[in-house]
Automatic annotation (TrEMBL):
It comes from Sulfurimonas marina. Residues 268-389 form the ABC3 transporter permease C-terminal domain. PANTHER family: LIPOPROTEIN-RELEASING SYSTEM TRANSMEMBRANE PROTEIN LOLE. Residues 28-163 form the MacB-like periplasmic core domain. This is ABC transporter permease. It comes from the Bacteria.
């Protein structure tokens, strides 16, 4: 019976009161504020996660999951490569030689790095380059360039591209930079213009010849792994002291730390929308308490307990808050679906491989948003509920 009383009073106080319309308007504003806050938070967190994952995907491809590097000259060689391939047959390895270069086409210059690789091995560790390699056959001094550089230089397949190497050779009384023309054989597109302009790929033999390196010596070994954070520990145990291994994330610690801090800051700032909306819940409930003081005092005098009165106003605030949270979740998930499905916002094509926004709502973020909003709603409802239960029966009835 008493449970029905609490339910009846909650429904009664939620109805529009013609004599006190501002109470209903205040509750409506609280509902809309919480709805807006939850919706914006869900979309914002999905955007942050989407861009975070997109950058991780690109950095993983172009920076490679794992890389073996020499501590001393000549310590990364064919013998080490064969040993790693035999001990870790589930992984893919691609030895490389690297040099800083300046590419030149007409009067245009661009700095970058050229990698000498075995194209067959490289295709197994780099999905972007695998598309560019395809079924083509490459000669010794053929080169694969990035799409951004190809468009800037207006290169076509078979064109010659001049490379200026940073190491120099003695020539009489002076030193001169080493120059070499390569034939452009193909183009890769990583989706990130910085890599497309800076990275170039040629044959391993070509770069070893130009840099006067033995054919069995490398500058490093790229490794493709599905679980690099686990495999790096196992590989490190098998490596000699003359070489080291690093993961792609170790070169980008500050970048992802900044993204995580930005995500946390955005979460806190947007949660303030819900906090501000909760003030409307407090004011709405307090106005309801003041407006219904006579009814509350009468109920208490007829045997209703203070705990039941507290429940009425606590449930009243929770109903408003949960309704806003549910509406916010529905609108937020709908917004994520619309933005991720339709080309509403244009993204720079030279940076992102997709025209639609990258959205990925993590379940931990979802539960954090919903639970955080619920806690704010409950705390906002508690104070007015407590004040309602403390109504002085004698004073109110005497004045009424």
């Amino acid at each position: 019976m008493k449970k029905n009383l609490v339910t009846y009073l909650v429904k009664k106080f939620l109805r529009f009161d013609k004599e006190q319309p501002f109470i209903f308007i205040s509750a409506l504003l609280a509902f809309l504020g919480i709805t807006l806050g939850v919706m914006v938070l869900l979309i914002a967190m999905a955007l942050m996660n989407g861009f975070d994952n997109e950058f991780k995907k690109k950095l993983t491809i172009m920076n490679y999951p794992l890389t073996v590097l020499p501590k001393f000259y000549g310590s990364v060689n064919q013998e080490l490569l064969i040993e790693l391939e035999s001990k870790f047959p589930n992984l893919h390895f691609s030895p490389y030689v690297q040099s800083a270069v300046i590419s030149k086409s007409g009067s245009k210059l661009e700095g970058g790095y050229i990698f000498g690789v075995d194209f067959q091995d490289e295709a197994n560790v780099n999905s972007v380059l695998k598309k560019a390699i395809g079924d083509q056959q490459f000669n010794k001094f053929d080169v694969i360039v990035g799409k951004s550089l190809q468009e800037e230089y207006m290169l076509s397949k078979g064109d010659k591209l001049m490379y200026i190497f940073t190491n120099v050779e003695p020539g009489g009384f002076s030193v001169t930079p080493k120059l070499k023309r390569f034939h452009v054989q193909s183009t890769f597109d990583s989706g990130l213009s910085a890599y497309d302009k800076a990275y170039h790929y040629t044959s391993l033999a070509a770069l070893q010849t130009l840099l006067h390196m033995p054919s069995d010596m490398y500058d490093g070994i790229h490794i493709y792994s599905e679980n690099p954070r686990e495999d790096i520990v196992q590989i490190a145990e098998e490596l000699p002291v003359s070489v080291s291994i690093k993961g792609w994330w170790q070169d980008n610690v500050n970048f992802f730390a900044a993204l995580e801090m930005e995500k946390t800051s955005l979460f806190i700032v947007l949660m303030l929308i819900i906090l501000i909306a909760s003030i409307n819940i407090i004011s709405s409930l307090l106005m309801t308490v003041m407006n219904r003081r006579g009814e509350i005092a009468l109920l208490l005098s007829l045997g209703t307990t203070t705990a039941e009165i507290k429940k009425v106003f606590l449930y009243l605030g929770i109903v408003i808050g949960i309704s806003g949270i549910i509406a916010g979740v529905v609108l937020g998930l709908s917004g994520i679906w619309v933005l991720g499905t339709f080309d509403i916002i244009d993204l720079p094509k030279d940076v992102y491989p997709t025209a639609t926004l990258p959205l990925d709502l993590d379940m931990s973020d979802f539960f954090m948003i919903v639970s955080g909003a619920f806690v704010i709603v409950v705390l906002s409802s508690y104070y007015p509920a407590k004040k309602a239960s403390e109504v002085d029966i004698l004073t109110v009835l005497r004045n009424e």
